[in-house]
Design the sequence.
């Protein structure tokens, strides 16, 4: 078929078994540790189940198609496993430029590696394009000699919108400049999903996902993925996954693909709910709302230009930690829990995590808006806010 499928079709149709009589519509879960190899000279595709598993293939193919990657994706045991592998792309002693606000596990892991001397870490405000470019240029000048030919002396790590501040980076400009500078770039696309944002199309070298979130979508599995169109980088990431050994179980990957089938519908409803709630919340006196979909939000123009929607994460800033904690305790439909991207709505005060940067306000509450009826979500939030404010 020459007609290119829309993402809504890709999530449903990609990665199906070949159409033969009596073929099952879904791939089976292949439970094996090893694969029969009859001829030494022509080893099979998998060999051993730490290297590959047929259950991974349709999921990896579907994600690559969605992100526009020229090569199959790589599934990892968790988002952080994919992130750890991608961070290892930087040369020993190189520099990783990271967002000052980002997924906490990524920041904590990078800080630990930096403390152990693996690389230097330079935190930047990713919304400040000039600051990011200056950091990249400085790092490249310092570290050029370390490059192995892949551009790995410096690695630009991006998240947009960022967790939990929802800052929006100018992805087309930053990724194009990273390419001009000859440095690696990685984008954590978990918040946006490939439905709303395609970093590889802006020149990113690698995209990583916590598939735990919108991709699997039901808060029942922990899973990650990395996507790239570069053979050299895919080989390194594949090697890291195989040799470090933290691979995904076949059942989890099967669940990931099963969840992906409805991702377009879920994301559409969740972000529609998020937009309605953000607008209603912005009329409540005494709180600040952050959501790139609001016309007054600092990230609005950029998000409108580079995204296909504004996502389903909304943040509220209450005056202090006590009020924020009170809010998360008074809701009845929203679930107080960390994580995001599931069908159900979650609420969390982010500074309850000790290592969350102190530039994140004490009273910041992150809402992961789910697919429930928006009026029920609003009624619950409103009664809780009324009791708090
Ligand atoms: C949850 C999350 C991760 C980590 O993924 P896990 O699957 O929990 O390991 C990474 N990045 C972002 C943006 C996330 O939300």
Sequence:
């Amino acid at each position: 078929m020459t007609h290119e499928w829309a993402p809504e079709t890709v999530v449903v149709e990609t990665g199906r078994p070949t159409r033969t009589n009596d073929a099952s519509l879904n791939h089976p879960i292949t439970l094996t540790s090893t694969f029969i190899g009859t001829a030494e000279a022509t080893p099979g595709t998998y060999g051993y189940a730490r290297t590959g598993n047929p259950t991974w293939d349709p999921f990896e193919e579907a994600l690559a198609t969605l992100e526009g990657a020229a090569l199959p994706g790589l599934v990892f045991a968790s988002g952080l496993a994919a992130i750890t592998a991608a961070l290892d792309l930087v040369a020993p002693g190189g520099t990783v430029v990271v967002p000052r606000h980002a997924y906490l596990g990524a920041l904590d892991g990078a800080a630990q590696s930096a403390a152990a001397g693996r690389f230097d870490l330079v935190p930047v405000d990713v919304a400040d394009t000039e600051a990011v470019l200056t950091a990249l240029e400085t790092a490249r000048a310092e570290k050029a000699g370390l490059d192995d030919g892949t551009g790995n002396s410096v690695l630009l790590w991006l998240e947009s919108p960022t967790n939990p501040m929802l800052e929006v980076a100018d992805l087309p400009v930053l990724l194009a400049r990273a390419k001009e500078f000859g440095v690696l770039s990685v984008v954590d696309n978990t918040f946006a999903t490939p439905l709303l944002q395609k970093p590889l199309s802006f020149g990113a070298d690698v995209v990583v996902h916590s598939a735990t979130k919108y991709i699997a979508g039901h808060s029942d599995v922990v899973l990650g993925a990395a996507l790239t169109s570069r053979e050299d980088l895919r080989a390194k990431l594949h090697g890291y996954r195989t040799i470090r050994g933290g691979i995904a179980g076949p059942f989890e990957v099967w669940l990931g693909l099963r969840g992906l089938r409805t991702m377009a519908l879920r994301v559409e409803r969740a972000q529609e709910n998020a937009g309605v709630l953000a607008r209603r919340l912005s009329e409540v006196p005494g709180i600040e709302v952050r959501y790139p979909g609001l016309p007054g939000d600092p990230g609005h123009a950029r998000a409108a230009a580079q995204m296909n929607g504004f996502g389903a994460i909304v943040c509220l800033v209450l005056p202090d930690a006590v009020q924020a904690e009170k809010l998360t305790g008074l809701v009845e439909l929203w679930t107080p829990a960390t994580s995001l991207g599931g069908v159900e709505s979650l609420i969390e005060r982010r500074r309850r995590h000790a290592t969350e940067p102190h530039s994140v306000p004490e009273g910041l509450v992150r809402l992961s808006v789910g697919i429930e009826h928006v009026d029920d979500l609003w009624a619950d939030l409103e009664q809780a806010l009324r009791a708090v404010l």
The mean pLDDT is 97. Residues 18 and 129 are 47 Å apart (CA to CA).
